[in-house]
Specification:
alpha/beta; 7 strands
């Protein structure tokens, strides 16, 4: 599992979103280049569907409010039945391996937002693995952003 290199992260705030506002709607689209290792984080009122490739290995996420509390929901497109089972299993493993890096990139890329809304560092992260395969389709808890904000600090020691 890789660690975030901030020099390889490009962040774009889209129309209607600033580095600190709003909480809802605030949607994240994280894509990457396999060639350069560059990560691209788009933060907007809508997902950046214009950045999606045929590989479908992006991370979509958003803040939602439930029962007066904020949750961070992540959506990973593993498959829709178009891949052979072996490929779906590999995609699932890649998402599991790379998700900590993705969450660290989102936390770092939107760090001014988290400074302004410090309480969101402790909001639960809920991950939806989208798949036609019932063994892969699932919902998991992945901690809070406080688990991902210090990964760079701890590896620098």
């Amino acid at each position: 599992m890789g660690r975030l290199n901030p020099e390889k992260l490009t962040v774009e705030f889209r129309t209607g979103v600033t580095p600190t506002e709003p909480i809802i709607p605030r949607r994240y689209t994280l894509t990457h280049s396999d060639t350069t290792g560059q990560l691209f984080l788009d933060i907007g009122r809508e997902y950046a569907f214009d950045k999606i490739t045929s590989m479908r290995d992006e991370v979509f996420a958003q803040w939602v409010e439930k029962d007066g509390k904020y949750l961070y929901t992540v959506y990973l497109y593993v498959d829709n039945g178009e891949f052979p089972p072996a490929v779906t299993a590999i995609r699932n493993q890649v998402f599991i391996r790379e998700l900590p890096l993705a969450l660290e990139a989102i936390r770092y890329g939107d760090r001014e937002f988290f400074k302004t809304h410090d309480e969101l560092n402790n909001a639960p992260i809920i991950v939806y693995f989208k798949s036609k395969n019932p063994q892969i389709k699932r919902v998991e808890k992945w901690g809070t952003f406080s688990n991902y904000e210090n990964r760079r600090k701890s590896t620098a020691l």
